[in-house]
Amino acid sequence: MESEVDTYGNPDLLIQSFTLSKYDFMDFMGGKELFIGVEKRNDTLFEMRTMLFSNFPTDNQLTGVFTYPVVKVAENEYRFYSKLSLLKPDMKSYQVGWVTYFYPYNYPFDKEAADQTYAVANEFAAAMGLEKPKPVEYYLFNDRTEYFRYLGADVSCYDFIGCGRVYPHGFAFADCNKVFFTKGGESLAHEIMHFIIKEKTGRKRAPMFEEGVCSYYGGHTLQPKETIMLELKKWLMENPQIDLGVDLVMAYKDQDGRFVTDSTMAASQERFAYGDYANNYAYAIQMAVCEMAERKGGKALVIKMLNEIKENEEEYNVIKNYLGIARKDMNRAIREFVIENY
Ligand SMILES: [Zn+2]
After folding, report:
1. Domain co-membership, 181 together with 144
2. Cα 310 to ligand 1 centre (Å)
3. DSSP readout, 239-273?
4. Residue 215, in any domain of the structure
5. Separation of 51 CA from ligand 1 center, angstroms?
6. pLDDT band at 30 (very low <50, low <70, confident <90, very high)
7. Average pLDDT over residues 98-108
8. Same domain, yes or no, for 67 and 125?
9. Total structural domains in the chain?
10. What separation in Å is there between the alpha carbon of 198 and the centre of ligand 1?
11. Is 218 exposed, middle or buried, given 0-12, 13-18 or 19+ CB atoms closer than 10 A?
């Protein structure tokens, strides 16, 4: 009898990293995973189920129930696969250069946007001196629950935070050059650019400036750059107490939840990245720095700075060296740039 695995046709597709679903999720969501059980589907295919709790055991918030296919490959030999391995043959695909997009049949794929995104990424790779980037698989889904299901999780609680709004979200699995994104993700080169930078520099963690570069050239949250920068301008004007010369990424919060640089105004010693529910101002600040560099020396200067900034703390020195702005003038310089240009 034909096994369930055989019906999926291409055994190559099953050779995928188990870590694609499990460990990236654990890293990403944190928490504790508990075993539920194993179900036998047929002679070769089993399904293992677990559930993941955040803040276990204090809150017991269930963040996901996961299903992992377990395939019997020989007598007493079993292998884990990701759910994606089994579902991928049912997706449509579109390849452009070294990027292949995959999406469910009912997904409204925007081919023009995908071509444009590839052009941006390919041009950036060339500017980085990377002639033949590693192939990228770019997965698109209608919403986050669908995206979770393709990783073996049954539901994404994020789809139920607001009424009827799909929250755009993307995640890059850097170890295997795969991107997952909700609707519209084919218009963003952001995550692909992270792969290019990682491949070229061998860097494991991206400094915040890299987020600015990927957001400036490759897009961020599906909003046009002008909208993001206008929001940043408004936020900076409403928050004159924030000093970007002290920290470009994070600050304390006061009793009213406002960001404060001065620790004597802080409600606690905890620090938070600049942002609120709708806007990531820490990224937008870096987009402004990126644009300042782009205007001064084009993409070549941006890449030079990108290669030198390995840790966030180094950024002030690099800005001083290449943009001629001392740390004590940084707060004024960024505010003026954003106000004059947006
Ligand atoms: Zn990013």
Report:
1. yes
2. 15
3. -TT--TTT-SSEEEE-TTS-EES-GGG-SSS--EE
4. no
5. 28
6. low
7. 96
8. no
9. 3
10. 12
11. buried
Average pLDDT over residues 183-199: 94
Q: State in Å: Cα 294 to ligand 1 middle.
A: 19
Rounded to an integer, the average pLDDT of 154-162 is 60
Using the 3D structure, point to which of 145, 173, 204 is the last residue of a domain: 204
Q: Are 251 and 236 in contact (CB under 8 A)?
A: no
Indicate whether 163 pLDDT > 60.
no
CA of 178 to the centre of ligand 1 (A): 14
* Assigned token pair, 206: 């991206």
Matching residue, tokens 């928490």: 31
Same domain, 319 and 232: yes
The string of pLDDT tens digits covering residues 302-335 is 999 999 999 998 999 999 999 999 999 999 999 9
Q: Is residue 177 part of a domain?
A: yes
Length of the chain: 342
Ligand 1 centroid, distance to 211 Cα (angstroms): 5
Is 295 within the bounds of a domain? Answer: yes
Residue ranges making up the domain that contains 137: 91-204
pLDDT tops 60 at residue 287: yes
Which residue has better confidence, 211 or 53? 211
